[in-house]
Amino acid sequence: MHTPHSPRPADPLDLLELDSMLTPDERAVRDAVRTFCDRRVEPHIAEWFEQGEIEDIRGLTKELGELGLLGMHLEGYGCAGMSAVDYGLACLELEATDSGLRSLVSVQGSLAMYAIHAFGSEEQKTEWLPRLAAGTAIGCFGLTEPDSGSDPGSMRTTARRDGGGTSRSSGAESGGDWILDGRKMWITNGSVADVAVVWALTEDGVRGFVVPTDTPGFSAPAIKHKMSLRASVTSELVLDSIRLPGSAVLPEVRGLRGPLSCLNEARYGIAWGAMGAARSSFRAALAYAGDRIQFGRPISSFQLTQAKLTDMALELAKGTLLAFHLGRTKDDRGLHPEQVSYGKLNNTRAALDICRTARTVLGANGISLEYPVIRHANNLESILTYEGTVEMHTLMIGQALTGQAAFR
Predict the structure, then answer these.
(1) N or C: which end of the chain has fewer CB within 10 A?
(2) 8 A C-beta contact, residue 271 and residue 328
(3) Which CATH architecture has domain 18-134?
């Protein structure tokens, strides 16, 4: 005979009880990241956003490394070796604080570290991965160019062999040095990085290179005047005939499969992270609606406000469920690129809509940095575009649906 449970009081931030889907270990990861963000970053993030810089970014990166968040889903070399769901939960909590914080972790772990871990030589892995995992070194990922965003195959950065150099490599890739020339644009962490993974066109197709940023001819001027991702370092990479040894090339990959597989890792994290920004904005709107008195009543008592809150709650829950599903699937059997596109496309669009709706609930206060909403909304304008635009992810899903490529 079924015995009915006593009804629990509803949690307005989790009406579907999604928290029950987590294992105790996953909750511990989530709580540890949330506690760190609340203690270390939340008190300062609005000021950092307004100033356009993170105070003591190296110190913060080292703390993130000590917490095990850098390359946390990778195995060995000082990496934590945690699950895809663990990594997703961390991205959600990081971006609930600020997209710039999640970008710092995502670019370090899912782009720079993943590229070296998946495609690098043993020498490259042992030299860089432990330092990057510990946060004592910072990495960046150079793919996008001023005239080559959604079409990386048209990149103009080149790498050519020069047999007259003094290569320090003795491996299979040691037939002389490499000379790199070109520009990369919109590169997170660029101006503070110790190492850059740079993709360049060679006579053998697109290849990746591990570039120490103290290499002569390398510079990374910061990009200023941003109105989005202001609490994030964004730079141009300038490669003026920089000379690298033969051992600098990533030996295990050729072609665009290399950078695109890295982007899929990062896009997966964005599907979770966007829901963090959305949750923060929804929470702010819900609390504000209960406190704000108009016409003698809290605005949460009005039908139109309740409709907005309901719509936000629905989209937040659906997006979080999608992220959970992708995480479980990734841990179980891996993800297809179009599945990652589902998450990135849906959740960034939904998160931006939630933030815009939350802004209307806050009225004029919605544009103040005293509340997180406008900061999240501004950040998500970038998240909507980077790691694949709305148009590109739409066409990736369209190709999977129809079997027809419509990119050109």
Answers:
(1) N
(2) no
(3) Orthogonal Bundle (1.10)
Q: Using one digit for the tens of pLDDT, what is the confidence trace for 114-133?
A: 999 999 999 999 999 999 99
Q: Which residue matches tokens 């860089």?
A: 128
Phi, psi angle pair for 181, to nearest 5°: -135, 135
SS3 assignment, position 183? strand
**What is the percent of the chain with per-residue pLDDT over 70, rounded to a whole number?**
95
Both tokens of 181, joined, read 């020339």
**Which amino acid would we find at residue 273?**
G
Is 225 within 8 Å of 168 (Cβ atoms)?
no
Which residue out of 53, 370, 387, 391 is catalytically annotated?
A: 387
Q: Where are the domains of the chain?
A: 18-134, 139-255, 258-402
The answer to whether 193 and 111 have CB atoms below 8 angstroms apart is no
> pLDDT at position 407, please?
85
Q: pLDDT band for 255, please (50, 70, 90 cuts).
A: very high
CATH architecture group of domain 139-255: Beta Barrel (2.40)
Asked whether this chain's domains 18-134 and 258-402 adopt the same fold, the reply is no
Phi-psi category of residue 135: left, alpha or beta, with phi > 0 → left and psi -120 to 50 → alpha:
left
Q: Which residues contact 274 (CB under 8 A, 6 or more apart)?
A: 95, 319, 347, 348, 350, 351, 380, 383
pLDDT tens digits, residue range 362-372? Answer: 999 999 999 99
Dig out the tokens for 353 from the structure.
Answer: 């809509």
* d(C-alpha 272, C-alpha 92), whole Å: 5
Residue 185, Cβ neighbours under 10 Å: how many?
18
Mean pLDDT across the chain, nearest whole number?
94
Say what the pLDDT of residue 4 is.
60
d(CA 359, CA 355): 6
Q: Is the pLDDT of residue 2 over 70?
A: no
Find residue 205's DSSP bridge partners: 202
Q: What is the distance, to the nearest Å, from the Cα of residue 151 to the centroid of all Cα atoms in its chain?
A: 20
Give pLDDT, residue 163. 79
CATH class of 258-402: mainly alpha
Q: Return the structure tokens found at 221.
A: 């001027």
* pLDDT, average across residues 12-19: 93
Helical spans, DSSP H, in 200-336: 257-291, 303-332
**Region of poorest pLDDT, from 98-107, 135-144, 149-158:** 149-158
Task: Please confirm, yes or no, whether 387 is among the known catalytic residues.
Answer: yes
